[in-house]
Design goal:
By secondary structure, the chain is mainly beta. The protein contains 3 helices and 25 strands.
Protein backbone atom coordinates (compact mmCIF):
# COMPACT_ATOMS: atom_id res chain seq x y z
CA UNK A 1 0.00 0.00 0.00
CA UNK A 2 2.81 2.37 0.84
CA UNK A 3 4.53 1.49 -2.45
CA UNK A 4 1.40 2.29 -4.46
CA UNK A 5 0.93 5.55 -2.58
CA UNK A 6 4.57 6.43 -3.16
CA UNK A 7 4.28 5.79 -6.93
CA UNK A 8 1.09 7.86 -7.05
CA UNK A 9 2.83 10.77 -5.35
CA UNK A 10 5.75 10.54 -7.78
CA UNK A 11 3.34 10.56 -10.73
CA UNK A 12 1.52 13.60 -9.38
CA UNK A 13 4.78 15.41 -8.70
CA UNK A 14 6.02 14.62 -12.23
CA UNK A 15 2.79 15.92 -13.75
CA UNK A 16 2.94 19.12 -11.71
CA UNK A 17 6.57 19.62 -12.75
CA UNK A 18 5.67 19.13 -16.43
CA UNK A 19 2.75 21.54 -16.05
CA UNK A 20 5.02 24.14 -14.48
CA UNK A 21 7.46 23.89 -17.40
CA UNK A 22 4.73 24.33 -20.06
CA UNK A 23 4.35 27.99 -21.06
CA UNK A 24 0.83 29.18 -20.31
CA UNK A 25 -0.57 32.13 -22.27
CA UNK A 26 -2.95 34.24 -20.19
CA UNK A 27 -6.28 34.93 -21.92
CA UNK A 28 -6.04 37.95 -24.20
CA UNK A 29 -2.23 37.83 -24.35
CA UNK A 30 -0.03 36.91 -27.34
CA UNK A 31 1.85 33.60 -27.11
CA UNK A 32 5.36 33.87 -25.72
CA UNK A 33 6.78 31.87 -28.63
CA UNK A 34 5.88 30.34 -32.01
CA UNK A 35 8.25 27.34 -32.21
CA UNK A 36 6.81 26.21 -35.55
CA UNK A 37 8.18 29.24 -37.44
CA UNK A 38 11.84 28.21 -37.11
CA UNK A 39 11.93 27.13 -40.78
CA UNK A 40 9.66 25.78 -43.50
CA UNK A 41 10.18 22.23 -42.22
CA UNK A 42 8.79 22.98 -38.77
CA UNK A 43 6.01 25.05 -40.34
CA UNK A 44 5.02 22.11 -42.56
CA UNK A 45 5.02 19.74 -39.58
CA UNK A 46 2.56 22.02 -37.79
CA UNK A 47 0.38 22.01 -40.89
CA UNK A 48 0.28 18.19 -40.85
CA UNK A 49 -0.87 18.27 -37.22
CA UNK A 50 -3.59 20.86 -37.93
CA UNK A 51 -4.98 19.00 -40.95
CA UNK A 52 -8.59 17.89 -40.50
CA UNK A 53 -10.08 17.87 -44.00
CA UNK A 54 -9.19 16.99 -47.58
CA UNK A 55 -11.21 18.01 -50.59
CA UNK A 56 -10.88 17.76 -54.35
CA UNK A 57 -12.75 19.11 -57.35
CA UNK A 58 -12.61 19.09 -61.12
CA UNK A 59 -13.44 21.99 -63.38
CA UNK A 60 -12.81 23.26 -66.86
CA UNK A 61 -14.29 25.64 -69.38
CA UNK A 62 -18.01 25.74 -70.07
CA UNK A 63 -17.74 22.35 -71.81
CA UNK A 64 -17.42 20.53 -68.47
CA UNK A 65 -20.87 19.85 -67.08
CA UNK A 66 -21.17 20.63 -63.35
CA UNK A 67 -22.54 17.93 -61.07
CA UNK A 68 -22.37 16.66 -57.51
CA UNK A 69 -19.67 14.20 -58.52
CA UNK A 70 -17.15 16.89 -59.50
CA UNK A 71 -16.45 17.59 -55.81
CA UNK A 72 -15.62 15.30 -52.88
CA UNK A 73 -14.21 15.74 -49.38
CA UNK A 74 -13.45 13.91 -46.16
CA UNK A 75 -12.97 15.09 -42.58
CA UNK A 76 -11.53 13.50 -39.45
CA UNK A 77 -10.84 14.21 -35.79
CA UNK A 78 -7.37 13.97 -34.31
CA UNK A 79 -3.87 14.31 -35.72
CA UNK A 80 -2.63 12.43 -38.76
CA UNK A 81 0.82 12.20 -40.28
CA UNK A 82 1.48 12.86 -43.97
CA UNK A 83 0.90 9.25 -45.09
CA UNK A 84 -2.34 9.01 -43.14
CA UNK A 85 -3.52 12.27 -44.73
CA UNK A 86 -2.69 10.93 -48.20
CA UNK A 87 -4.68 7.79 -47.36
CA UNK A 88 -7.67 10.09 -46.90
CA UNK A 89 -6.92 11.73 -50.25
CA UNK A 90 -7.02 8.32 -51.95
CA UNK A 91 -10.60 7.84 -50.73
CA UNK A 92 -11.83 10.83 -52.76
CA UNK A 93 -13.62 10.07 -56.01
CA UNK A 94 -14.38 12.53 -58.82
CA UNK A 95 -16.37 12.08 -62.02
CA UNK A 96 -17.64 14.46 -64.66
CA UNK A 97 -18.76 14.85 -68.24
CA UNK A 98 -17.46 17.14 -70.95
CA UNK A 99 -18.81 17.96 -74.39
CA UNK A 100 -15.36 18.79 -75.80
CA UNK A 101 -12.38 16.48 -76.08
CA UNK A 102 -10.08 19.52 -76.39
CA UNK A 103 -11.16 21.01 -73.06
CA UNK A 104 -8.53 21.64 -70.38
CA UNK A 105 -9.65 19.75 -67.28
CA UNK A 106 -8.34 20.96 -63.92
CA UNK A 107 -8.10 18.60 -60.95
CA UNK A 108 -7.40 20.49 -57.75
CA UNK A 109 -7.18 19.54 -54.12
CA UNK A 110 -6.59 21.16 -50.77
CA UNK A 111 -5.88 20.05 -47.23
CA UNK A 112 -7.47 22.28 -44.62
CA UNK A 113 -7.61 22.82 -40.88
CA UNK A 114 -10.85 22.06 -39.06
CA UNK A 115 -12.19 25.60 -39.55
CA UNK A 116 -11.45 25.62 -43.27
CA UNK A 117 -8.05 27.34 -43.26
CA UNK A 118 -6.14 26.07 -46.29
CA UNK A 119 -2.86 24.41 -45.35
CA UNK A 120 -1.80 22.68 -48.59
CA UNK A 121 -3.00 22.91 -52.18
CA UNK A 122 -2.16 21.51 -55.58
CA UNK A 123 -3.58 21.16 -59.09
CA UNK A 124 -3.08 19.25 -62.33
CA UNK A 125 -4.37 20.33 -65.75
CA UNK A 126 -4.83 17.81 -68.57
CA UNK A 127 -6.86 17.17 -71.70
CA UNK A 128 -8.94 14.04 -72.33
CA UNK A 129 -7.09 11.24 -74.14
CA UNK A 130 -8.44 8.39 -76.21
CA UNK A 131 -7.52 4.90 -75.04
CA UNK A 132 -8.92 1.93 -76.99
CA UNK A 133 -11.44 4.17 -78.68
CA UNK A 134 -12.73 5.52 -75.34
CA UNK A 135 -12.21 9.06 -74.10
CA UNK A 136 -10.78 9.26 -70.60
CA UNK A 137 -8.36 11.26 -68.47
CA UNK A 138 -4.71 10.28 -67.93
CA UNK A 139 -4.42 7.92 -64.97
CA UNK A 140 -1.94 10.20 -63.20
CA UNK A 141 -4.18 13.28 -63.19
CA UNK A 142 -5.43 12.59 -59.66
CA UNK A 143 -1.92 12.41 -58.22
CA UNK A 144 -1.69 15.85 -56.65
CA UNK A 145 1.60 17.25 -55.32
CA UNK A 146 0.44 19.30 -52.34
CA UNK A 147 2.47 22.43 -51.63
CA UNK A 148 2.38 24.29 -48.33
CA UNK A 149 0.07 27.33 -48.55
CA UNK A 150 0.11 28.98 -45.12
CA UNK A 151 -0.25 27.97 -41.50
CA UNK A 152 -2.58 29.64 -38.98
CA UNK A 153 -1.61 30.70 -35.45
CA UNK A 154 -4.01 31.97 -32.79
CA UNK A 155 -2.42 35.12 -31.35
CA UNK A 156 -4.71 35.46 -28.34
CA UNK A 157 -6.20 38.83 -29.29
CA UNK A 158 -7.35 40.81 -32.31
CA UNK A 159 -4.66 41.21 -34.95
CA UNK A 160 -4.28 44.42 -36.97
CA UNK A 161 -1.57 43.18 -39.34
CA UNK A 162 1.34 40.81 -39.84
CA UNK A 163 4.49 40.92 -41.96
CA UNK A 164 7.69 38.98 -42.27
CA UNK A 165 10.77 41.18 -42.09
CA UNK A 166 14.38 40.33 -42.92
CA UNK A 167 16.97 40.76 -45.67
CA UNK A 168 16.65 39.79 -49.32
CA UNK A 169 19.35 37.99 -51.34
CA UNK A 170 21.14 41.30 -51.86
CA UNK A 171 21.21 42.06 -48.14
CA UNK A 172 18.58 44.80 -48.39
CA UNK A 173 15.72 45.13 -45.87
CA UNK A 174 12.66 43.38 -47.27
CA UNK A 175 9.09 42.57 -46.27
CA UNK A 176 6.77 39.62 -46.92
CA UNK A 177 3.10 40.45 -46.45
CA UNK A 178 1.03 37.70 -44.85
CA UNK A 179 -2.63 37.14 -44.12
CA UNK A 180 -4.54 37.70 -40.90
CA UNK A 181 -8.10 37.78 -39.62
CA UNK A 182 -9.57 38.10 -36.15
CA UNK A 183 -7.07 36.60 -33.70
CA UNK A 184 -5.26 34.59 -36.36
CA UNK A 185 -2.17 35.14 -38.47
CA UNK A 186 -1.29 33.00 -41.48
CA UNK A 187 2.45 32.40 -41.81
CA UNK A 188 3.49 31.86 -45.41
CA UNK A 189 6.51 29.78 -46.49
CA UNK A 190 7.55 32.89 -48.43
CA UNK A 191 8.84 34.07 -45.05
CA UNK A 192 11.89 31.88 -45.62
CA UNK A 193 12.91 33.75 -48.75
CA UNK A 194 14.30 36.25 -46.23
CA UNK A 195 17.46 35.80 -44.23
CA UNK A 196 17.06 36.00 -40.42
CA UNK A 197 13.27 36.30 -40.76
CA UNK A 198 11.10 37.81 -38.04
CA UNK A 199 7.31 37.56 -37.88
CA UNK A 200 6.07 41.00 -36.78
CA UNK A 201 2.50 41.09 -35.49
CA UNK A 202 0.54 44.28 -34.83
CA UNK A 203 -2.52 44.15 -32.59
CA UNK A 204 -5.58 46.36 -32.55
CA UNK A 205 -4.65 47.59 -29.06
CA UNK A 206 -1.52 49.21 -30.54
CA UNK A 207 1.02 46.67 -29.27
CA UNK A 208 3.53 44.97 -31.57
CA UNK A 209 5.33 41.65 -31.05
CA UNK A 210 8.32 40.19 -32.89
CA UNK A 211 8.84 36.43 -33.23
CA UNK A 212 12.36 35.53 -34.38
CA UNK A 213 12.81 32.32 -36.37
CA UNK A 214 16.50 31.95 -35.51
CA UNK A 215 15.69 32.20 -31.79
CA UNK A 216 13.31 29.25 -31.80
CA UNK A 217 10.35 31.49 -32.55
CA UNK A 218 10.61 33.30 -29.24
CA UNK A 219 8.51 36.43 -29.04
CA UNK A 220 8.94 39.79 -27.44
CA UNK A 221 6.96 42.97 -27.27
CA UNK A 222 8.80 45.74 -29.07
CA UNK A 223 8.81 49.49 -28.54
CA UNK A 224 7.04 51.38 -31.29
CA UNK A 225 7.40 55.02 -32.27
CA UNK A 226 3.99 56.57 -32.97
CA UNK A 227 3.88 58.56 -36.19
CA UNK A 228 1.07 60.77 -37.43
CA UNK A 229 0.57 62.44 -40.79
CA UNK A 230 -1.73 65.32 -41.63
CA UNK A 231 -2.53 64.89 -45.30
CA UNK A 232 -2.62 67.64 -47.89
CA UNK A 233 -1.70 67.78 -51.53
CA UNK A 234 -1.39 69.58 -54.81
CA UNK A 235 -1.84 68.71 -58.46
CA UNK A 236 1.08 68.88 -60.82
CA UNK A 237 0.67 70.81 -64.07
CA UNK A 238 -2.48 72.49 -62.79
CA UNK A 239 -3.10 76.24 -62.44
CA UNK A 240 -6.04 77.24 -60.24
CA UNK A 241 -7.57 80.73 -60.23
CA UNK A 242 -10.09 81.25 -57.45
CA UNK A 243 -12.46 84.19 -57.88
CA UNK A 244 -10.20 86.28 -60.13
CA UNK A 245 -11.40 89.90 -60.61
CA UNK A 246 -12.82 91.04 -63.93
CA UNK A 247 -9.95 91.79 -66.35
CA UNK A 248 -7.42 89.68 -64.42
CA UNK A 249 -4.34 88.60 -66.40
CA UNK A 250 -3.13 85.08 -65.63
CA UNK A 251 0.51 84.54 -66.61
CA UNK A 252 1.26 80.85 -67.20
CA UNK A 253 4.80 79.72 -68.01
CA UNK A 254 5.14 76.11 -69.17
CA UNK A 255 8.53 74.59 -68.48
CA UNK A 256 9.91 72.98 -71.64
CA UNK A 257 13.22 71.56 -72.77
CA UNK A 258 13.74 71.44 -76.52
CA UNK A 259 10.00 71.99 -76.89
CA UNK A 260 9.16 69.00 -74.67
CA UNK A 261 6.82 69.72 -71.78
CA UNK A 262 3.40 69.04 -70.29
CA UNK A 263 0.19 70.82 -71.27
CA UNK A 264 -1.36 72.34 -68.14
CA UNK A 265 -4.97 72.36 -67.01
CA UNK A 266 -6.18 75.81 -65.92
CA UNK A 267 -9.13 76.01 -63.55
CA UNK A 268 -11.08 79.21 -63.12
CA UNK A 269 -13.32 78.99 -60.06
CA UNK A 270 -15.76 81.87 -60.02
CA UNK A 271 -18.60 82.69 -57.67
CA UNK A 272 -19.31 85.98 -59.45
CA UNK A 273 -22.95 86.75 -60.16
CA UNK A 274 -21.99 88.32 -63.49
CA UNK A 275 -19.91 87.28 -66.46
CA UNK A 276 -16.26 88.31 -66.10
CA UNK A 277 -13.31 88.41 -68.48
CA UNK A 278 -10.10 86.59 -67.57
CA UNK A 279 -7.03 87.15 -69.75
CA UNK A 280 -4.40 84.49 -70.33
CA UNK A 281 -0.73 85.18 -71.08
CA UNK A 282 0.59 81.67 -71.81
CA UNK A 283 4.01 80.70 -73.15
CA UNK A 284 6.62 77.96 -72.94
CA UNK A 285 10.12 78.54 -71.63
CA UNK A 286 11.22 77.90 -75.24
CA UNK A 287 9.29 81.03 -76.25
CA UNK A 288 6.32 79.34 -77.96
CA UNK A 289 2.72 80.48 -77.56
CA UNK A 290 -0.56 78.67 -78.10
CA UNK A 291 -2.61 78.99 -81.26
CA UNK A 292 -5.93 78.58 -79.42
CA UNK A 293 -7.52 77.95 -76.04
CA UNK A 294 -10.14 75.31 -75.39
CA UNK A 295 -12.59 75.88 -72.57
CA UNK A 296 -15.75 74.46 -71.02
CA UNK A 297 -17.71 74.93 -67.80
CA UNK A 298 -18.04 71.96 -65.46
CA UNK A 299 -21.78 72.60 -65.10
CA UNK A 300 -22.38 72.15 -68.83
CA UNK A 301 -24.68 69.23 -69.57
CA UNK A 302 -22.38 68.00 -72.34
CA UNK A 303 -18.63 67.52 -72.48
CA UNK A 304 -17.94 69.56 -75.59
CA UNK A 305 -15.18 72.17 -75.55
CA UNK A 306 -15.35 75.60 -77.20
CA UNK A 307 -12.32 77.02 -79.06
CA UNK A 308 -10.92 80.55 -78.73
CA UNK A 309 -8.43 81.22 -81.52
CA UNK A 310 -5.55 83.65 -81.09
CA UNK A 311 -5.33 86.42 -83.65
CA UNK A 312 -2.05 86.86 -85.52
CA UNK A 313 0.48 88.44 -83.17
CA UNK A 314 -1.88 88.21 -80.20
CA UNK A 315 -0.12 87.20 -76.94
CA UNK A 316 -2.91 87.66 -74.42
CA UNK A 317 -6.30 86.07 -74.93
CA UNK A 318 -9.38 87.02 -72.95
CA UNK A 319 -12.14 84.54 -72.21
CA UNK A 320 -15.61 85.24 -70.86
CA UNK A 321 -16.27 83.30 -67.71
CA UNK A 322 -20.02 83.10 -68.00
CA UNK A 323 -22.46 83.29 -65.14
CA UNK A 324 -25.33 80.94 -65.93
CA UNK A 325 -27.21 81.21 -62.67
CA UNK A 326 -24.84 79.04 -60.67
CA UNK A 327 -21.23 79.20 -59.63
CA UNK A 328 -18.85 76.70 -61.14
CA UNK A 329 -15.44 75.91 -62.56
CA UNK A 330 -14.35 76.70 -66.09
CA UNK A 331 -11.52 74.58 -67.48
CA UNK A 332 -9.07 76.17 -69.90
CA UNK A 333 -6.46 74.19 -71.89
CA UNK A 334 -4.00 75.69 -74.38
CA UNK A 335 -3.30 74.12 -77.77
CA UNK A 336 0.07 74.64 -79.48
CA UNK A 337 1.15 74.30 -83.06
CA UNK A 338 2.45 70.83 -83.87
CA UNK A 339 6.09 70.66 -82.82
CA UNK A 340 5.95 73.66 -80.44
CA UNK A 341 5.00 71.53 -77.42
CA UNK A 342 5.45 67.74 -77.32
CA UNK A 343 4.47 65.67 -74.31
CA UNK A 344 7.33 63.64 -72.82
CA UNK A 345 7.30 59.86 -73.13
CA UNK A 346 6.24 58.16 -69.88
CA UNK A 347 8.92 55.53 -70.53
CA UNK A 348 11.83 57.94 -70.92
CA UNK A 349 14.14 57.99 -73.90
Amino acid sequence: MKKILSLTCVAIATALCAFAQTPVTPPGSPPSELPAIVNSGTLRARAFELAAEVNASMWGSDSLLPSDTTYDHRTWVGKKNSLEILDQVKLLKLAGQTVSSSDDINIGGSINAKDGDQLFAGMNTVKPVQVGGVWTLPSTVGNIAFALSSVPFDMGKEVAGVVGVGKDTNGNPSTVWMGYGGRKIYVSPLLYTLSNPVVRVSFTDGSVWDYTAADGGKGKKIVVIPLTVNMSGSFKNTVTLKDPPNGFVSVVSIKTTNKVGITPTIEVMSSSMTTIIVNFDISTTDGKRPVRLWYRKSTDSNESWAPAVYDVGQTIKGLPINYDGKAGTTYVVPEFKVGDLTEPSPYGK
